[in-house]
């Protein structure tokens, strides 16, 4: 556009038109854009500008053209139509209703975040009324935009409230557990165990002093922190922690325990004295065995050998000291049994022979066969052990001696202990770790009436699925035992259900105590087999897992999963925290249970089918109807401590426990009297003899031919051969 000056005379004498005139003057000199907001006032301004254009044309006889971009107007009209559709289809009403429903569970909260959400919800309810009562489409569209903006703010704020509440629930549970542990002296016991475990390294010859001192400081930190918590829970103490301080100290205590475990593990692996090796266990065993076989020792030597046995973990130095001590004892003539022991042993044997002659007969008649069976079974266990660890035959024998001794302590057979230990060794556990886990497995097997292999499988599932450390295993077993005592289920059944579903449960965000409680409630109500209960839960968690992975078909049943979230949203249940983040399934189930009683019968069946599918919806409905018991069992499991060992103590005193102890002794005796080497030699010799006979028979054709040859050769030397051949003729088919 060329530049020129135009003087315009006009009789428009209003301030609004003067302002418009100034804008036109600028347009004449330069290309300009005039922006007009798309609202009522904007339309009025646009009309005024058009009036100015007409006056200019009329009074000055010139043509004024204005290029207008109307895309904004079109968009504004489109937004109005969109808002009108949302209102007419009641979609916006559903969004507002859901917002009000979501807040009900937080109505009692008075936190800042909850108050902010409450204020936004109040604004939303006002906004929806303003939308419906708007005098025209333009005002309705403005009010609608405010409503959608407030809804988005509310959704974000309610997530903050939910997360705070979730963290508060965790804090509450953690606090309750800490208080229980303090009141039950579990904390004091933990501290003593920590110190004892650390002190077992104090005399190791290659200990890392820095690590040792670091662990000492960690134990002190844990002790000091728990002392602060003890004072906080003591009603007679004026010392009180606020919520933030309490949370910080609980986290500090938990972190100290984790640091202790990790640093302790590093310390164990840094010690060159083979603390976790087979030799340490065998060496300690050898020392104790030597002392039992040499009762002539003086007290001085007994004390010295006991000390060596205790320090066997420090490695070759102790082995050398033991060898030196045995030489010195032999030189002084102090080895062997004492005179009194020999006399006592003689009388004892005479008495036992006189009073148990009948029993001995039974042992030789029936017990002989049992011994042979034991030797074979023990040899199988030793073979598995050797394949898992690459031990020599002698080392495996010594290891079995260790298992027999542990069997005496646990009232279990050495074979059961060997089988469990072998499974742990196969998983790469060190000897010391395997020994601890074997004890845990035996405890679970006895209180749950499980085989040692089944118990090991259950603990393995817990450790691998939930990353449970070795020293946390008994806490898990305590959870099973505590729920067993509170519900109409048993330890074995709960373990069976757990094995079926553990991996999928962890992926779904379900904790062990919750999973066991779900299984207990369904099992005791339906009286189904616990394996079936585990299968039902596994199907539910797998179904939710498929939805998370956008697999919209249940490949087990063929059911369509595309409408599951829609069905659940229809009754106010959300599987997600955000568009891309799913909630832990524990939280989803808890929220569903809160609204369950308000659902109609049709809604309950629809929700159950959405969660569990057609085949398992009844189990889901049972879970919801009995949710009160679920929460009770979860609370019991969270506070579990020592229940399993109480049960195990009762088992050890029972007839079954004593019989297991007797069986363990008999297994040990069997392998002592008839070792697998001797038994193997007899079997090999028998096999060789059979092989020789087989070769001879193959050469002579039949046993009768061989017998005839032998008889003829021997008897002919005595002049009796011919008569005898005739005598035996019927056997040889000769006339």
Mind explaining what this structure looks like?
The protein has 735 residues and is mostly helical. The protein is 76% helix and 0% strand. The chain has 32 helices and no strands. It has helices at residues 15-29, 40-60, 71-88, 91-104, 112-132, 137-183, 186-199, 209-233, 243-270, 278-293, 299-310, 316-331, 339-355, 357-389, 393-410, 414-426, 431-447, 452-466, 473-486, 491-508, 512-526, 530-548, 564-569, 585-596, 601-625, 627-638, 643-653, 655-673, 676-700, 703-716, 721-727, 729-732. α14 (357-389) crosses α15 (393-410). The longest helix is centred in the N-terminal third of the chain and has 47 residues, at 137-183. The model is unreliable at 36-40, 272-277, 353-357 and 720-735 (pLDDT under 50).
Q: What coarse outline follows from CA principal-axis ratios?
A: elongated
> How many extended strands?
0
CA-to-CA gap between the ends? 147 Å
Return residue spans where pLDDT drops below 50 for at least 5 consecutive residues.
36-40, 272-277, 353-357, 720-735
Task: Name the average pLDDT.
Answer: 74
Determine the structural class based on helices, strands and strand pairing: mainly alpha
Strand residue percentage: under 5%
| Biggest sheet features | none
| Oligomeric state of shown chains | single chain
The Rg value, from CA coordinates, equals: 43 Å
The helix content is over 70%
Q: Please, how many helices?
A: 32
Which properties best describe this structure?
single chain, 735 residues, mainly alpha, 76% helix, elongated, disordered C terminus
